[in-house]
Amino acid sequence: SPLFHKFLKEALNKVPKDKCVTVRDALNQAMDEELERDERVFLLGEEVAQYDGAYKVSRGLWKKYGDKRIIDTPISEMGFAGIAVGAAMAGLRPICEFMTFNFSMQAIDQVINSAAKTCYMSAGLQAVPIVFRGPNGASAGVAAQHSQCFAAWYAHCPGLKVVSPWNSEDAKGLLKSSIRDDNPVVFLENELLYGVPFEMSEEAQSKDFTIPIGKAKVERAGSHITLVSHSRYVGHCLDAAAVLAKEGIECEVINLRTIRPMDVESIEASVMKTNHLVTVEGGWPQFGVGAEICARIMEGSAFNYLDSPVTRVTGVDIPMPYAKILEDHSLPQIKDIIFSVKKTLNV
Amino acid sequence: MKTMLAIISNALCRMTGRNALLIGLSEYVTLTSPSPPASAQTQRQPPKPPPVSTRAAQLVSGQTTDQPVGPGARVVVSRSFADFTPQATFDIKKCDLHRLEEGPPLKAELTRDQGLQYYRTMQTVRRMELKADQLYKQKIIRGFCHLYDGQEACAAGIEASINPTDHLITAYRAHGYTYTRGVSIKEILAELTGRKGGVAKGKGGSMHMYAPHFYGGNGIVGAQVPLGAGIALACQYQGNNQLCVTLYGDGAANQGQLFESFNMAALWKLPCIFICENNKYGMGTSVERASASIDYYKRGDFIPGIRVDGMDVLCVREATKFAADHCRSGKGPIVMELQTYRYHGHSMSDPGVSYRTREEIQEVRTKSDPISMLKERMLSNNMASVEEFKEIDVDIRKQVEEAAQFATSDPEPPLEDLCNHIFYNNPPLEVRGTNPWSKLKSVS
């Protein structure tokens, strides 16, 4: 009957229109929306304009916004990072892309000494609203000089915010928040995630969707053990959790989303529930993100709830090798996470 | 007879402060003809009315002669203006040119008011730096302290040729520019002594002082140059016809990031004046020992350059005007090398005599001191009197003394301020102290 069809149509319209969006497209959308929203925002970096981005993250933006707002730079990281910081000091809101964060080492003085410390040194007179973004950590077969994870290096420094998204929703919401933040943000993407599609809720697809910096997300609830991770390894943790669930071990998986400031409260709340903690990251073990989590848990209220020491799962403490078999064994695999969980639970 | 009368009349006027001339004014001018160091032509203009004194906002001198006069003129309200030459033209040293057909003019006009203003600015910087030297030796200032005395003509000349709405960034020898860009002596000295009344509330120190359109004060040698190019990019982006003056030293001139900045600035035609303050020594290393080419004005390669006598405030002013016109006309960046000299060592921990002779320092002081040069020019062209300069000196000393008093008596910043200003426009956050139980608060 026509009434029934009308009812059905209305009901279907109310169903949220989730769709699959790759991380690349989510980042692209974030930048597009923020460029449109605020004319002070602009993007600079190598190949971001006419090449559409080395990893195509800025595809279409130059065509839409032109030379003034999407700027191709020469291969001069220290120079263009400094130029970006200067532009931020003088009232613009630059997005400075490093083709990979490995190249940011050339410019790290500008990120730390010129950007991060300035608000403090000037007692609040001089703000630096800038985002440094680009792929971080291991890729595939790119060997030692192109595979380093810089999360720990940047997160060490006061004055910076360090963000590390995992899925498309993270990527879009956090990049928008980072661009709108009046402070220097280091935004660590992951090249292997660019092409991965994730469901994005209708809410996440809106132009005003932002995710607050400094808040972790519980991706999967569980009661036996807490897994904390960031970026690509959140996916690994979820995969490990799925396997472990078949054996009756329920993992709570926390996606840090932000490295600095770290949402330790969320981790503590989870540990107080599960009594066990495993951290998972791609970076090297020494002085890393996992090391910081261990220290913070030890210093806080959750320590007394631990039934065993915290376990860190990390990249192997070596420069990244090239051969596939070696590379595969340089980074945490799902079986490493499963093994570590069982060891921590003593099962 | 007339000469005698003129001399007596002159003396009477000076003594009584009254306009009791025994001869006609026009004859007075020719009789007291000066022997200028460079040939000067005096121009007859009606004397200006006594000025209303305004505070140092007039560090920036306009190109026209009807700018409001600075505090320098305040002291001469009681004098007769008919005594002094209101304006003179001076020959200035020709600049060496790189990739330029024409350079700055060979003559500079100076009005009496401008002259007194520049004198006051330079003398203030000089006395402020010497006071800092004193306070450092008394251990009231600690850490780094890089003094600018000797180089005053650079800061004063540059400020005289740009607008307050233009932008300026420099390296660590920054106290002079902090002053010319509008920060009070009080706030500068209090920052050096680390007090809460300092321009950065005691958080920054000597090398990290900021003001509107002044971006410090930068500690990492050369890092300020890309920053300056970026500020120029912002000017171009915003279409506001402003420019950025980006300063660096002969030592920084060999930093790679400078050449990266030159490349991008030229490529994108950024309105940036790159200025090398060549004071002949990068810390303890002379320019000959550091650079394969000491023609710093040519180091921009494809960027035009001019080499300027940095001890002559008029030369600096004319060259910077020329450079500013170049940038504002859309021609892109330009490089200026100011040949100058610092009397002090690199910093307060460097006596400054292990790598150069005392004779050399003394020679510059006697023959090329920027403040003396300006004063002599003005005196020999009868643009001001010795007494006037003395009064200005006394006033400056008083101001610097008061500022030093403040800087030594103002309290240090409160401990509650320790973690503040990490972020801008941010909700309050907790900061870990030295131990896990020490939870400190940070507000923006």
From TrEMBL, chain A:
Organism: Amphiprion ocellaris (Clown anemonefish)
Domain annotation Transketolase-like pyrimidine-binding: ranges: 21-196
Cofactors: thiamine diphosphate
Gene for this chain: PDHB
Molecular function terms from GO: metal ion binding; pyruvate dehydrogenase (acetyl-transferring) activity
GO biological process: glucose metabolic process; pyruvate decarboxylation to acetyl-CoA
Subcellular location: Mitochondrion
Catalysed reactions, semicolon-separated: N(6)-[(R)-lipoyl]-L-lysyl-[protein] + pyruvate + H(+) = N(6)-[(R)-S(8)-acetyldihydrolipoyl]-L-lysyl-[protein] + CO2
Role noted for this protein: The pyruvate dehydrogenase complex catalyzes the overall conversion of pyruvate to acetyl-CoA and CO2.
Protein name per the record: Pyruvate dehydrogenase E1 component subunit beta
InterPro entries in UniProt: PDHB_mito-type, THDP-binding, Transketo_C/PFOR_II, Transketolase-like_Pyr-bd, Transketolase_C
Any single Gene Ontology cellular-component annotation: pyruvate dehydrogenase complex
The protein's Enzyme Commission number: 1.2.4.1
Keywords: Carbohydrate metabolism, Glucose metabolism, Metal-binding, Mitochondrion, Oxidoreductase, Potassium, Pyruvate, Thiamine pyrophosphate, Transit peptide
Main location (coarse class): mitochondrion
Self-association state and partner proteins as the record states: Heterotetramer of two PDHA1 and two PDHB subunits. The heterotetramer interacts with DLAT, and is part of the multimeric pyruvate dehydrogenase complex that contains multiple copies of pyruvate dehydrogenase (E1), dihydrolipoamide acetyltransferase (DLAT, E2) and lipoamide dehydrogenase (DLD, E3). These subunits are bound to an inner core composed of about 48 DLAT and 12 PDHX molecules. Interacts with DLAT.
A Pfam family it matches: Transket_pyr
Automatic annotation (TrEMBL), chain B:
Compositionally biased region (Polar residues): 33-45
Keywords: Carbohydrate metabolism, Glucose metabolism, Magnesium, Metal-binding, Mitochondrion, Oxidoreductase, Phosphoprotein, Pyruvate, Thiamine pyrophosphate, Transit peptide
Cofactor: Mg(2+); thiamine diphosphate
Domain Dehydrogenase E1 component, chain residue ranges per copy: 121-415
Main location group: mitochondrion
Highest taxon of the lineage: Eukaryota
Enzyme type, top EC level: oxidoreductase
GO terms of biological process kind: glucose metabolic process; pyruvate decarboxylation to acetyl-CoA
GO cellular component, one term: mitochondrial matrix
Subcellular location: Mitochondrion matrix
GO terms, molecular function: metal ion binding; pyruvate dehydrogenase (acetyl-transferring) activity
Its EC number(s): 1.2.4.1
SUPFAM superfamilies, per the entry: Thiamin diphosphate-binding fold (THDP-binding) (SSF52518)
Chain positions covered by the region annotation Disordered: 33-55
Reaction equations catalysed: N(6)-[(R)-lipoyl]-L-lysyl-[protein] + pyruvate + H(+) = N(6)-[(R)-S(8)-acetyldihydrolipoyl]-L-lysyl-[protein] + CO2
Described purpose of this protein according to its UniProt entry: The pyruvate dehydrogenase complex catalyzes the overall conversion of pyruvate to acetyl-CoA and CO(2), and thereby links the glycolytic pathway to the tricarboxylic cycle.
PANTHER family: PYRUVATE DEHYDROGENASE E1 COMPONENT SUBUNIT ALPHA, PYRUVATE DEHYDROGENASE E1 COMPONENT, ALPHA SUBUNIT BACTERIAL AND ORGANELLAR
Name assigned to this protein: Pyruvate dehydrogenase E1 component subunit alpha
